[in-house]
Amino acid sequence: MVRGGARPAVLLVDDDPTFLNTFAREFARRDWNVATAGSPAAAAAEVRRQHPSVIVLDLMLGDDNGLDLIEALHAESPDTRIVMTTGHPTLATAVEAMRRGAHYYLPKPCNVDRLIAAAESEPAAPPPVSRRASLAQSERAHINRVIAACDGNISEAARRLGMHRRSLQRKLRKHVPGGS
Question: DSSP class of residue 178?
Fold first, then answer.
C-alpha cells in the first residue's frame, strides 16, 4: 500500500466518534497518514483533498447508507481501495458492496491489523457474466437489491416486493448458488 516510499493514507468514514478516534490512533501508530469523516459530505471533501490509499467506510452513516457513497468515492479517486465495515453484516449487503466497487467487506468488531490485511489483499476475480441474464437471474438480482435497500430485513423486503415473507424465503432458498 505504500506508494513511492510515502506513508500510506487512510480515510476513516464512520458516524461513531469513538470508532474514529480509536482507529485513527491505531493507524497513526502503524505510521499511516490518517483522516476522518463523520458524514458522506465530509468523506467526499476529504477524498477530493487527499486521494487516500484506503477508505474504511461504515455501512450505516446515521440516516445515510455507505453503499450509496462507494461509487462517488471511486469517481473521485479510482485507485483507492474501499473496505466496507458494518456491525450488521448480511450476505445481501456484502454482495451489493462488492458489486458497487468495495474492495473488501468486513464485519465489526474488527481490529486495525484486520483492516490493513483486508486493504492489502488481492480482490477476488468477479464471476463470469453472461451476455443476457435469465429471468430467474434478473428476479434474484432485483430481490437482492431490495433486500440490500432494507438492510437485510426480510420482512420489510417482502412487503416492498408485495409478497409474503415465507414466499420470499422460499425463493431465496430455491436460488442458492449450487442448489436446485
Answer: T
Q: pTM for the full model?
A: 0.66
CA distances from 78 to 53, 71, 131, 169 (A): 10, 9, 26, 37
**At a CB cut-off of 8 Å and minimum separation 6, what does 92 contact?**
144, 147, 148, 152
User: CA 40 to CA 135: how far, in whole Å?
Assistant: 35
CATH number of 135-174: 1.10.10, 1.10.760, 3.10.450, 1.20.58?
A: 1.10.10
Confidence of residue 130 (pLDDT cuts 50, 70, 90): very low
Confidence of residue 120 (pLDDT cuts 50, 70, 90): confident
**Amino acid found at 106:** L
The three grid cell numbers given for residue 112, joined into one nine-digit string: 486495525
Looking at domain 9-120, which CATH architecture does it have? 3-Layer(aba) Sandwich (3.40)
Longest dimension (CA), the chain: 57
